[in-house]
Amino acid sequence: METDRAVLAELARLRSRLPDLSATVIAGVDGMLLAYDAPGLQPETIAALSAANLGLTQRFAHTVGHGELRETIIESAGGYVAIYAAGLRTLLAVLARPSANVARIHHEARRTARRLGELLDPVEVRPLAPMQEARVIPVEGQMPLAKRTPMAALQSSVPGQRAG
After folding, report:
1. Do residues 27 and 85 touch, judged by C-beta distance below 8 A?
2. Which helix (H) or strand (E) covers residue 140, if one does?
């Protein structure tokens, strides 16, 4: 339970340094709520949406070749939502008022996310090596494997319709 106290202490320190924050949520990248300070809000929903947002933006960063995602920020009329990767399996989401100093939020929340990652995800996991295409070595006397065809390319048994 020492980790729980340390996590809650990190949230309290962050909120004390940033008075314009309206909520903080720590979640797993699977969307499961781990800890929160979110008065009047639904922390489970914030955790799930934050994980979905982080996953989508991680995919986007990877697709465009920008490497590992560190954070994402949403600016709306009602304020800011910033989501930070905190280790490999956790995230920190902070909600702030429209008057908040975004640079200060980043400065403080990045440090907090780094510390939370150390507390909640202490074992560094090595990323998996990229998969390599399997080589097929022909064996004399055997038939080659059949080539697979996507369902959308197959002809339907119903006249005038395609499968898929």
Report:
1. no
2. none
Burial category of 28 from C-beta neighbours within 10 Å (exposed 0-12, middle 13-18, buried 19 and up): middle
Pick from 112, 121, 93, 104: nearest CA to 25: 93
CB 35 within 8 A of CB 11: yes
What DSSP assignment string belongs to 6-59?
HHHHHHHHHHHH-TTEEEEEEEETTS-EEEEE-TTS-HHHHHHHHHHHHHHHHH
Q: Strands of 97-149 (E only): list them.
A: none
pLDDT tens-digit map of 104-115: 999 999 999 999
pLDDT of residue 50: 96
**What kind and span of H or E run contains 163?**
none
Reply yes or no on whether the pLDDT at 125 is more than 80: no
Query: pTM, whole model, 2 decimals?
Result: 0.72
Q: What is the mean pLDDT of the chain?
A: 82
